[in-house]
Design a protein that fits this description.
Layout: H1 6-11, E1 19-24, E2 31-36, H2 42-45, E3 47-52, E4 55-60, E5 75-80, E6 83-87, H3 91-100, H4 105-109, E7 124-130, E8 136-142, E9 152-160, H5 163-180, E10 186-198, E11 201-210, H6 214-225, E12 232-237
Antiparallel strand pairs: 1-2, 3-4, 4-5, 5-6, 6-7, 7-8, 9-11, 9-12, 10-11
């Protein structure tokens, strides 16, 4: 297995989002669990980690600025008997409660799917550390809509100084893409970006999930040749 430098990976990524690291110390004598968190929106950035007994949870830094607590306030780490549960969302409580009823870690997570945060559809990343008869761990990424390695992802960002024009051209591009691809591709959107307006431009996203790239690459080549006035199109592949 190829070793990578986490420091270099994070340095090269302007937005790593939420991350969970599970492993052991270099001497193998101690379990290690690390968690980092970022946010795109002001609402997401307005949170801090707080320890509450044996639980680590997120709380608003400024409660008066919370616009929607549903996806940003949750128990991040909980202890359950000889286990330590760590996740990037409220599935921490799902795992805790169902394992208390006798379900396995995997069975507990099968009751959940991606976060309802279109257009991102954030995967639910979960880990558990077992401390009975030594140390072991398990990780799971719940991706019912298909994320790498199940699918590759292409994101098309459409932006314009006019909200109406960005919206209208996004619909035209979606129709164009739909006509070029077959049923093996999953095309989501267009939807307003999580950061709706940046540098005086309104932004819409189209997300394409795929396993084979032949039709997609041909469609993108043709899309690049189209003359679309007053709209900027940025394409990211395998994000």
């Amino acid at each position: 297995m190829e070793k990578i430098s986490l420091e270099n990976e994070l340095k090269s990524n302007s937005y790593p989002g939420r991350g969970i690291i599970i492993g052991t110390s270099p001497d193998g004598k101690s379990a290690v669990c690390a968690y980092f968190i970022m946010g795109r929106s002001e609402n997401s950035r307005n949170r801090v980690f707080v320890r509450d007994g044996e639980t680590l949870k997120t709380e608003p830094f400024d409660a008066s600025k919370v616009s929607d607590p549903s996806l940003i306030i949750y128990n991040a780490v909980r202890k359950s008997e000889n286990n330590l549960i760590v996740t990037n969302g409220d599935q921490t409580d799902t795992v805790y409660n169902l394992m208390s009823e006798g379900k396995s870690f995997k069975e507990s997570l099968e009751t959940r799917e991606f976060e309802p945060d279109a257009p991102n559809f954030t995967p639910r990343i979960s880990g558990i550390l077992y401390f009975e008869n030594g140390f072991n761990y398990e990780m799971n990424i719940r991706k019912k809509l298909g994320y790498p390695p199940y699918y590759y992802i292409c994101n098309i960002l459409i932006s314009s100084t006019s909200f109406e024009q960005a919206s209208e051209e996004s619909k035209k591009i979606k129709k164009f893409i739909d006509n070029k691809l077959d049923d093996s591709y999953i095309v989501l959107g267009p939807s307003v970006s999580s950061i709706v307006k940046l540098k005086n431009k309104y932004r819409f996203n189209i997300m394409i999930k795929y396993k084979k790239n032949e039709l997609l690459y041909k469609a993108l080549e043709e899309l690049n040749k189209l003359e679309i006035k007053n709209v900027t199109i940025d394409i990211s592949i395998n994000i």
